[in-house]
Every structure is written in C-alpha cells, then in structure tokens.
Amino acid sequence: MAVAGPTGPALSREEVDRALARLGAEHEAVESSLLALQDHAGRRLLEGAELTGATKSRWAVAEQLITQLWTHFDVYTDVLTAARELRARRRWPTQGELAELTDLLRGSGVTLPGGGTLALSPALAPAARLSERLSLTELVERMNGWYAEALDVVVTADAVWSALPARIDLLAAELQRTRSLAHSVGVRPGEHPSGDDLEQITHELTSLRAEVISDPLAFWCGASPSSAPGGGRPDTARYDRAARALEEVRREIEAVLDVRQDAEQRLMRVRDVLSRADRTLHEARLARVEVLSKIAGSDVPAVSGPPTALYEQLSAAADQRRRAQWHRLSPLLESLEERSEEELLRARESLTAVTAPLAVRAELRGRLDAYKAKVARHGLAEDPFLIERYDDARRRLWSAPCDLMAAEEAVLRYQRAVAETLSPPAGAAAHEPTDRRGNHEQRLPAARLRRDVRGRRRR
Predict the structure, then answer these.
(1) pLDDT value at residue 239
(2) Per-residue pLDDT tens for 425-442?
C-alpha cells in the first residue's frame, strides 16, 4: 500500500512511469515550440528593428518572457532529468523513492529563484519574492501563458510585415509611374489639383511605410493570429484610401492623355468650323449688299463681324498645346467646340435672314413663269389683256431695285386675270372663292417676309 505524503498517496510504479512519459512528451513539445519561436522570422525582425509605440513596449515584455521561458524550461528539464534518474535506479523502486518521485512529479518540488519576473507584465508575473516553489503542472501552465503572449507579438508583427510593406512598395511603384506620366502632360503640384493629390499620396505612403515598419502591432485589428486563426487581419484602411486616391488621379491623367492624343485633330475641327462660319458671314455680307441694291425698301438685318473672342481662345488653346498644358487645354477645347458650332449656326441664320427678300423675289418669279406656262397650255398666250398684266409683273420683278410689294400686287393681278380668263362664265360668285384662295396663297411669301422683318425688329 502506498504511503501517504504531503501531496497525497504516493504514486505507484506504473503511475510514475505514465507521468514520466506524459511529462517527457510535454517537454519535447515545449522545447520544439521554444526553438520554433527562437528561429521565427518575425522574432528576428523584431530584434533588428527600431520599434516605436505599442510594438516597442510589447516587444520589451515579450523579450523578457522569452528569456524567462528558457530559464523555466531549464528548471523543468532539470526536474524531469532528476525524476528520470531516480526512477532508473532500480526496476522496482522503494516506497521512499516513490514518495520522492511523487513529490517531484505531483507536488511543489520545483524551486524557482525570485526577482527574475519583476519586469514582466503584471497579469503574468508572480508576486515578488526571493524564491517560489510550484509543481511541474503549474510550471507548464505558466510557460504556456508566457509563450502565448510572446508568440502573439511575434506572429502579429510578422503578419503585418508580410502583408503591408510589400503592398505599399507596389503602390509606391505605381505612384512613381503615375507621377512621371502626370509630369509629361503638365500635371504638376501647384498647377493642377491632381498634382497636389499625387504629392499628398506620396507623403502618405512614405509615412505609412515608416509607421508599419516601426510599429506593426498598431496595424492589426481583430483577434490574435496565434490564438484565433482567421479572427484578425492587418489593418489596411490607410493603404486602401491611398490606393483609391491614386486610382482617381490615374483616371484624371488618362483623360488628360486623351486630350493630348487628339488635341491637334480637335483644334483643326474647331478651325474648320470657324472658317465655315466666316465664309457664311462673308456670303451674308455680300448678299446684304446685293439685297440693298436690288430690293427696294427692304429692312435687311446687319451682319456681325468674325468671332474675335473665339479666335483669341483658339490661339490660346494652340499655345497651351505647344506648352503641353493639357490639363488646361481640356476644358478650353470643350468650350471652343461648343461655341464654334453655335457660331456656325448663327452665321447660317444670318445668311438666311439677309437673303429672305431675294428668296421671295425668286419665288414670285417662279410663280409668274408657272402661270405663263399655264396660259400657253390653254392657247391664250396671245391674249392682249394677259400679256399686258404679265409684262407689268415681269417688269417689276426684273427691275433693279425691285419693289417687292408692288411686284407681288402685279403678280396677283396677273393670277386673277388668268383665273378669270380660264373660268367658265358663271358669274362673279363662282370666281370669288378661287380669287380669295388665290389671294391668300399668293400673298404668303411677302406676308412671311414682313412677319420675319417685324420679328427681327423686336429682337
């Protein structure tokens, strides 16, 4: 029967062997974990980095934890070695040896010096004393806690360093290419908002990379990667904002590049439109002189001169193209394209308004000739009355200057004479609708002209 000791009944030989096997496996696992932590890339980076902020303070604690871990592991190794040696003395240990083994394996047989844990975090460090005694189980639990805290620091820092600096470097390379492209199209700081944005993004990426290198733990959100895989991740909020800002600038630069590629063609199109507007206005001025000389009493609108302001802007746009000021050229080109089309439309309207009397005269001439042909088809070309009315209308239409009102009345008289001659002798009532309809239809060109003139006067 086992003799009872301070830790309870002494273990049997079989229980001692099982306890030694379990503690041996735990010893190997602890040793492997400590060696892996010692060789961890994150730990080597932390040892060589100039740390700041939370990472600096937590790594200072973690370094002490790692040192204490090896100290406690050495004590653990010594106690386990002593227990193995005691068990190896004889195949069948005595009751005294079993009691001693029980005290080593189960009791507070581990003596640790005090003072070495005073600098540890208050949550993990034991109370300050010269020495303390605890069991192997308590020793392993303490080592597991310290190991988890130290591993969190190492793994978190390594995860951040593995994720962010490389991405920042790639974004910085893209930023450099964008800066070069922006400089080539005249997008520079102080001259264009996108140039200022590029400067801000450059400063932000430089600052972000320095902070990530010196204080990686400040860029971790969520659970620790060692205690909750997948529960945490590097905080990329600042990086993402910089990436979005750079993408917006890049799109702006591409728009400026599009302007550079087709600026010459667009400028040529604007010149062509303005040239057509000039030619149209020139035609309108010539037509106005002709109308004033050929049409008597016509209220002909004045014709404006060439669009001087647009030509000045066109010259400025060409100068900006020569100076590669594409960011300024882009909005100016859009304005020039719109205003040049408006100028061409205005020139065409002016030409139409100026030549309206000539169009009315031509329409009256055509109508007079049409009625003459109608008279000839009916065999009345030699009618003296119709000849007299025709000659009067023709003389008025082909004279210079032409009185349109009088010429229109003469054409209407000829039309009425033709209608009366061709109508059957059924009385005036039979002819009255035709005359009224003819008067309305034939007075339409002159009436339209008078209405247009009154509208222009009101404008």
Answers:
(1) 94
(2) 654 444 444 443 344 444
Secondary structure of residue 17 in the 3-state scheme: helix
Buried b (16+ CB within 10 A) or exposed e, 338-370: ebbeebbeebbebbebbbbbbebbebbbebbee
Residue 115 pLDDT level (bands cut at 50, 70, 90):
very low
pLDDT value at residue 202: 94
- What would the mean pLDDT of 405-415 be, rounded to a whole number? 88
Sign of CA dihedral 369, 447, 453, 405: positive
pLDDT at position 429 is 44
Write phi, then psi, for 131 (nearest 5 degrees).
Answer: -160, 165
Alpha carbons 161 and 363: distance in angstroms, whole number: 88
**Amino acid letter at 207?**
S
CA distance 49 to 56: 10
Most confident of 214-228, 233-247, 318-332: 233-247
Which residues neighbour 33 within 8 Å (Cβ) at sequence distance 6 or greater? 147
With cut-offs at 50, 70 and 90, classify the pLDDT of residue 129.
Answer: low
Q: Which of 327, 178, 195, 198 is nearest to 250 (CA)?
A: 178
The candidate with the shortest Cα–Cα distance to 101, out of 26, 1, 3, is: 3
198 CB-near residues (< 8 Å, 6+ apart): 175, 178, 179, 182, 187, 189, 246, 249
416 neighbors 438 (Cβ within 8 angstroms): yes
Cα separation values, 401 from 288, 398, 430, Å: 13, 9, 38
Could you count the other beta carbons within 10 Å of the beta carbon of residue 124?
15
Helix, strand, coil % over all residues of the chain, rounded to 5: 75, 5, 20
Q: What is the largest CA-CA distance in the chain?
A: 165
Handedness of CA 85, 89, 90, 92 (dihedral sign): negative
Give the highest mean pLDDT range of 99-113, 126-140, 158-172. Answer: 158-172
Q: Are 104 and 80 contacting, i.e. CB atoms less than 8 angstroms apart?
A: no
Q: Is the dihedral of CA 291, 295, 296, 297 positive or negative?
A: negative
At residue 404 the predicted structure's pLDDT band, cuts being 50, 70 and 90, is confident
N-terminal to C-terminal alpha carbon distance within the chain: 127
- For the question of whether the overall pTM of this predicted structure is more than 0.90, the answer is no
Question: What separation in angstroms does the CA of 6 have from each of 108, 139, 330, 431?
Answer: 10, 19, 92, 146
**Mutual angle of helices 13-39 and 53-87, in 10-degree steps:** 150
Closest C-alpha to 344, from 268, 270, 263: 270
